[in-house]
Design a protein that fits this description.
The chain is α/β, with parallel strands linked by helices and 346 residues long. 53% of the residues lie in helices and 13% in strands. A six-stranded parallel beta sheet has the order 1-8-5-4-2-3, sandwiched between helices. A two-stranded antiparallel ribbon has the order 6-7. Bound molecules: zinc ion (ZN).
Length: 346
């Protein structure tokens, strides 16, 4: 059985980048030779600030990456082996973090993650999403050893990315329903501790006093919810506690070029529909999403009914072995059509 990893150093605070040297010196990591990896433009600016602060004490290089392909992982690993780096500092959004999580997993060197958005729950998860040829694969890896969330950076991040993060957390409720359903129908093992963490994450956001994506306290709590969701996945060893039928719908939508919505928005729309099908409180979810001005139905997300139906019809086949409510529907097409029509009216 794989051991459980948690970030042994976690800070969620303001001005982390401005005081990065102090934070890094507190960590049990080797800073002799550091490779900073960032995305282009916006995140590269933060990487330069870190570079400037560390260059006197450490041997530092900065690498900018453009994508999350397996080729990029290989390129960074080659650099790590040839130039003997001791630590990677990843500064960026999901692609940068996923590439660095997998790189650190392969090369076995320490990783410090500094996310620049809270767009999804993958920051501290044991999963890296990488492009391999024409396919997008979710690969197992380690949870990052150190995570630093700078609330000033998150505060300034695009509104859409914050909405996406909220949507990804909301989906825990339908994912847990599907997991428990599978437990009763197929005998799949349910880890109650994972369920508890996933539910705490979900409830902390749904029951939050604030509905303001510029409220720093809300962003602090969203950061915590995202970390807890990641840990619930680590304990299970898969995305199961945070990914059910709503994620299958989102994966099906990813196959359509004309749909280019953030992951958490697709998942939020999927979660409302899954709730409806699961006979959960889908109207409460709609009210919650409305308060943040987050799309909650195909029509509010700009997805036409035919395409939404087609994605739902494909959803069941998107992930082998992931048993959900979609596996027990008797009149699938009719159920989806009715659900889309009813939710689109609200
Ligand atoms: Zn997700």
């Amino acid at each position: 059985m794989k051991g459980i990893n948690i970030p042994i150093y976690l800070k969620v605070d303001t001005n982390i980048i401005g005081e990065i040297k102090g934070y890094l010196n507190e960590m049990p990591i080797d800073l002799t030779k550091v490779l900073i990896v960032s995305g282009t433009n916006y995140t590269a600016g933060f990487a330069k600030q870190v570079h400037l602060q560390l260059k006197k004490e450490s041997n530092i290089s900065h690498m900018i990456i453009q994508d999350n392909t397996i080729e990029t992982v290989v390129k960074i690993n080659e650099k790590i082996i040839l130039e003997e780096y001791s630590t990677i500092i990843a500064i960026g959004g999901g692609r940068v973090l996923d590439v660095c999580k997998y790189t650190s997993y392969i090369s076995r060197i320490d990783l410090v993650c500094i996310p620049t958005t809270l767009a999804h729950d993958g920051i501290a998860s044991p999963i890296a999403v990488l492009k391999i040829g024409d396919e997008v694969k979710s690969l197992g890896c380690d949870v990052p050893k150190s995570v630093l969330i700078d609330l000033d950076i998150i505060y300034a991040s695009p509104l859409e990315s914050k909405k996406s993060g909220v949507g990804d957390i909301l989906s825990n409720v339908t994912a847990i329903f599907d997991w428990k359903l599978s437990g009763s129908k197929t005998g799949e093992n349910i880890n109650d501790f994972s369920v508890m963490l996933s539910e705490i994450a979900y409830k902390s956001i749904v029951n939050h006093r604030s509905r303001d994506l510029e409220d720093r306290e809300f962003l602090y709590d969203l950061s915590k919810a995202i970390i807890l969701s990641g840990l619930s996945m680590e304990i299970t060893g898969s995305s199961r506690p945070c990914s059910g039928s709503e994620h299958l719908f989102s994966h099906a939508l990813d196959l359509y070029d004309e749909i280019n919505l953030p992951h958490g928005i697709q998942v939020a729309v999927g979660s409302v529909m899954s709730s409806y099908i699961q006979k959960q409180e889908f109207k409460e979810q709609i009210n919650f999403l409305k308060e943040f001005n987050i799309p909650y139905s195909p029509v509010t997300a700009g997805i036409n009914e035919d395409l939404a139906l087609s994605a739902w019809m494909n959803a069941k086949n998107m992930r082998k072995g992931r048993y959900t409510i979609l596996n027990i529907l008797e009149n699938e097409q009719e159920t989806y059509i009715n659900a889309i029509k009813e939710i689109n009216k609200l």
